[in-house]
Amino acid sequence: HKIADVLAEKGIPVIFGPMLxxxxxxxxxxxxxxxxxxxxxxxxTVAITTDHPVVPIDQLRLQAILAVSxxxxxxxxxxxxxxxxxxxxxxxDRVGAxxxxxxxxxxxxxxxxxxxxxxxxxxxxxxxxxxEPTGADDxxxxxxxxxxxxxxxxxxx
Length: 157
Fold this sequence. Notes:
Helix content is 24%, strand content 15%. The protein is α+β, with helices and mostly antiparallel strands. It has 2 domains: 4-88, no CATH class; 106-143, no CATH class.
């Protein structure tokens, strides 16, 4: 956050995180979750990371929720999980947004994905339902199939 204007001027993106750890690493000593909002407001392209396996990847959404609670614009938070990482990794011609011709896995939420009480209702990976609603009163989605992807990551039901 101290050189956000320089980063913005030079077009240097920031991958921020992990947010849910101690400040034991040198690069995390002056870290504060609210700094992400300051960096983004300066015009820097931001992405959020968990530094997996330091913080499990399933905490990525929680980190975005925390960043919003500390002043990050909700639209910017969603971009920090989707289009921005794709652009930083130079994969934005293939992934990162729902556009014709791009690969897309889709999660349908019960409400705002950055609201802590929103729940996953449906997941499509490669165009196939992986998790879908049961239709039961408890609204707990069921796993349609296990999906091995990204190394040791797996969907569990």
